[in-house]
């Protein structure tokens, strides 16, 4: 199996479109975005791939996180030594983002949907520093965030990651595998994996092992055990 | 820059107050250069001068003072004396992925950080030697999971002249060498 990040998936393209929308140069237009879906559709990996290759700051939020803790993590990730007072921390974060604008990606935003302080702090940071902020959440994140109309209005785009369909699975088979997958094999993977990336990769790997043992060049549905 | 780093490290070593004499003795750098460096650190708010005692007058020499300081901001001082690193390198990308995932395979690094297999292999080997990561099982082989056991922050560990990895916050931590 090849170690490549498949960029031609529909979800990845949606993510890239959202990033383009929040990274605009227009004045007076908001720069917040929301990505949500059920687990296993590649939200975190796609965001991490973007963050690692484009210098964005990605933070995995925690259940116990307070506004101060989050600000401290943001300041540290931005490359400064966090100050002691919350006021100074916020000023530091703004200063760092103004000096060198970067996209902030917050994963597992669901934890904060019941904590207005943290959510409003992120809105303040966005409004004052004018930095792009992308939230990543679980299945119902959009509905949970609707409770904060001031925040929800600031989302320039809301993207839902969908299950990978047959085309996406075919694309993954083409790009990840050293073997050629027959259309019936792709259909079977698409059905059995329920569009979840981890399952698709596992199935491709298993099929490759079987094909290697059988010294086959192509993989059909019959080759699956 | 090397002298400044030596003085900075000497300042960070004691936990509490230090005097000019102590730093001169510890570093072996001239009193004049040390004084100038400490003045710079004071102006930048990294250390604070708290006392200035007159020393015994030696006939034929100008009056010498025993200055006492304390560190005002350890983290900022450590960052000030740390070497300047290139940004957005392959190592930066890999370090970011490692810090986020905590448990990872080399394939994760290659896929997510978009680096070559050789690069990922070299970096995991270096991090393992320096004690930053630990493999899930000994003996190696494909599919080994690595776990981050020492996280030194967003600034990646840098490669020293000896070929070992060192934490960015120089002076606060020491590199583990094998």
Specify Rg of chain A, calculated over alpha carbons.
21 Å
Kindly report the name of the CATH homologous superfamily of the largest domain in chain B.
Winged helix-like DNA-binding domain superfamily/Winged helix DNA-binding domain
Rounded mean pLDDT of chain A is 89
- Which shape of chain B, going by the Cα principal axes? elongated
Strand count of chain A: 7
Query: Beta fraction of the residues of chain A?
Result: 5-15%
Largest sheet report of chain A:
5 strands, parallel
Main interface: chain pair and counts: A-B, 16 and 23 residues
How is the quaternary structure best described? heterodimer
Q: What is the top-level CATH class of the largest domain in chain B? A: Mainly Alpha
Count of separate DSSP helical elements of chain B: 7
Low-confidence stretches of chain A: none
Distance between the termini of chain B: 27 Å
Strand order of the largest sheet of chain B: 1-3-2
Roughly what is the average pLDDT of chain B, rounded to an integer?
Answer: 82
Kindly name the structural category of chain A.
alpha/beta
């Amino acid at each position: 199996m090849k170690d490549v990040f498949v960029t031609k998936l529909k979800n990845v393209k949606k993510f890239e479109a959202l990033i383009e929308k929040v990274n605009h140069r227009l004045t007076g237009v908001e720069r917040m975005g929301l990505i949500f879906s059920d687990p296993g559709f590649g939200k975190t990996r796609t965001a991490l791939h973007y963050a690692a290759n484009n210098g964005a700051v990605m933070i995995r939020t925690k259940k116990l996180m307070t506004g101060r803790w989050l600000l401290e993590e943001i300041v540290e990730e931005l490359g400064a030594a966090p100050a002691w007072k919350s006021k100074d921390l916020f000023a530091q974060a703004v200063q760092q983002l103004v000096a060198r604008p970067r996209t902030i990606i917050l994963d597992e935003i669901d934890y904060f949907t019941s904590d207005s302080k943290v959510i409003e702090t992120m809105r303040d940071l966005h409004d004052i520093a004018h930095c792009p902020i992308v939230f990543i959440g679980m299945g119902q994140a959009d509905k949970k965030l609707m409770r904060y109309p001031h925040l929800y209005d600031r989302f320039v785009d809301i993207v839902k990651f969908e299950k990978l369909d047959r085309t996406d699975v075919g694309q993954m088979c083409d790009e990840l595998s050293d073997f050629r997958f027959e259309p019936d094999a792709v259909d079977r993977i698409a059905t059995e994996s329920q569009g979840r990336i981890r399952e698709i990769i596992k199935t491709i790997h298993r099929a490759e092992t079987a094909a290697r043992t059988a010294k086959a060049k192509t993989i059909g549905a019959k080759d699956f055990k | 820059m090397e002298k400044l780093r030596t003085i900075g490290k000497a300042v960070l070593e004691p936990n509490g107050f230090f005097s000019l004499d102590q730093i001169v003795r510890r570093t072996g750098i001239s009193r004049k250069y040390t004084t100038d460096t400490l003045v710079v650190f004071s102006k930048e708010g990294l250390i604070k001068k708290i006392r200035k005692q007159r020393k015994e007058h030696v006939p034929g020499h100008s009056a010498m003072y025993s200055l006492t300081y304390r560190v005002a901001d350890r983290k900022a001082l450590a960052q000030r004396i740390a070497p300047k690193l290139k940004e957005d390198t392959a190592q930066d990308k890999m370090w970011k992925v490692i810090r986020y995932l905590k448990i990872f395979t080399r394939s994760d690094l290659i896929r997510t950080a978009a680096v070559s297999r050789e690069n990922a292999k070299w970096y995991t080997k270096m991090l393992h030697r320096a004690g930053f990561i630990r493999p899930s099982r000994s003996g190696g082989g494909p599919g080994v999971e690595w776990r981050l056991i020492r996280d030194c922050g967003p600034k990646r560990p840098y490669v020293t002249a000896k070929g070992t990895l060192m934490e960015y916050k120089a002076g606060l931590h020491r590199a583990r060498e094998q």
